[in-house]
Design a protein that fits this description.
422 residues; alpha+beta; Conserved hypothetical protein from pyrococcus furiosus pfu- 392566-001, ParB domain; Conserved hypothetical protein from pyrococcus furiosus pfu- 392566-001, domain 2; 2 domains; nine-stranded mixed sheet; six-stranded antiparallel sheet; globular
Length: 422
């Protein structure tokens, strides 16, 4: 099962400036404006390596820039290996949360080995981009975010004790999320963690593209005899307990563009799979949806403009949905029911169009979804409930994958606190 080991981390030195000005969000959620702001605040911000500029030369530029920063002493590789305890504390809807992750190296396995399990589909374009960056830099700049089960509490006990270690880095970001990092360097403690993970499966929460890219990179390097002598068998991961009370998954709402959405026709084409109920205030949509989730119902808030919204609640026919070639766990997902019965059957947005985001866009903000309809960018919005952790695990264990944009783990891990130089 899972094979973990400590990492001789590449980390920023004091020469780079304050840690909070060096790190960045995951590259795929950084806007052009945020990119410029990160670079302006600190020219050593990791976004310049993780999302390099320069057109077709951008990957080579990243390789040269990495060499420059190592030569200048802005980045340095630590002398001894360690596992790191990374904690995020944050607030959602007025409630305070915190979770702990163990940052380490994990041995790569193809998904068929069922040691590391995916839950979401990936895009070829994104994997090609990450592969070319790895070729040019030989680094994991950002960590895969993975989950594990700890029924006997053996890992939890080590995590709890490790919170007493000295803090290496601590700061609060612009979203109000507090990040802290501690170093677990004691050999006996590391051995205990390695042994505790030896019987565990890992479930990828975030970083499917990076994991698949690492598998391809490993095979590519080994096919050439590994001339650089790199440790291509391992990847940087942050491991979080599935039962951690601080895990928060936010919904990703669907925006319809370029085609009209008429409620009566939508329901007719959905074939009696939904009932409709009108509510006067769209600001109540998330509260109403949460109540339906507690009742175990498939439910969506359809917004087409004005003050109110239409609550679409799945009938027994929706509950009995099956999808050819897919697991029962996949068919039970809210996002599957939405995509299959409403987007595909009723609106004619097929899976190819979904993959290309043709007539379909995404946002995790209900307010942004409503605004998009009101300003005419979208013809309709479907607001969803979040996918539950146990649903993610069930799909992964069934050997299946969710549609893209099914989960949004919040907050994202910062990139640049701990890096893996292969």
């Amino acid at each position: 099962m899972a094979e973990i080991k400590p990492i001789r981390a590449m980390r920023y030195t004091e020469k780079a400036g304050k840690p909070e000005t060096c790190v960045c969000p995951p590259y795929d959620i950084v806007s052009d404006a945020e990119y410029a702001a990160l670079c302006e605040e600190n020219p050593y911000n990791l976004i310049r390596l993780e999302l390099p500029a320069g057109g077709e030369d951008r990957y080579a530029n990243a390789g040269r820039l990495l060499d420059d920063w190592l030569r200048e002493g802005v980045l340095a590789q630590e002398e001894s290996p360690a596992i790191y305890l990374y904690r995020e504390a944050f607030t959602v809807a007025g409630k305070r949360y915190a979770f702990d992750g163990l940052v380490c190296l994990v041995k790569l396995h193809p998904f068929s080995d069922r040691v590391v399990l995916p839950h979401e589909e990936t895009l070829s374009k994104a994997k090609e981009d990450r592969f070319r960056l790895m070729q040019a830099t030989g680094c994991n700049f950002s960590s895969v975010y993975a989950l594990y089960s700890d029924p006997d509490g053996s890992v939890r006990e080590v995590v709890r004790a490790s919170r007493e270690l000295p803090v290496l880095t601590e700061f609060t970001d612009a979203e109000g999320v507090m990040h802290s990092l501690r170093r677990i360097g004691d050999g006996a403690t590391i051995d205990r963690l390695v042994a505790s993970f030896a019987d565990k499966q890992l479930f990828i929460a975030d970083g499917h593209h990076r994991y698949e890219t690492a598998l391809r990179y490993r095979d590519d390097v080994l096919s050439r005899g590994n001339p650089a002598g790199q440790d291509v068998d391992h990847i940087l991961m942050t491991l979080v307990d599935l039962a951690d009370d601080g895990l928060v998954v936010l919904p990703t709402h669907r925006l319809i563009t370029g085609i009209p959405v008429e409620k009566a026709e939508l329901l007719r084409r959905a074939g009696g799979c939904f009932t409709a109920e009108e509510f006067p205030n769209v600001a109540d949509a998330e509260r109403v949806l949460a109540e339906k989730m507690r009742q175990g119902k498939h439910a969506y808030a359809l917004y087409t403009g004005g003050d109110g919204f239409t609550l679409l609640t799945g009938t027994a026919d929706a509950d009995r949905l099956t999808v050819e070639g897919r697991s029962a766990a996949y068919a039970r997902l809210d996002v599957t029911v939405l995509h299959t019965l409403l987007l595909e059957r009723a609106l004619g947005i097929d899976r190819e169009n979904m993959a290309r985001q043709q007539n379909l866009r995404y946002t995790r903000s209900a307010e942004e979804a409503v605004a998009s309809v009101r300003n005419g960018q979208s013809t309709a919005a479907f607001l969803l409930n979040p996918t539950r952790i146990e649903e993610i695990r069930a799909v992964a264990e069934a050997g299946d994958k969710m549609p893209q944009k099914s989960t949004y783990f919040y907050p994202k891990l910062k990139t640049g606190l701990v890096m893996n130089r292969l």
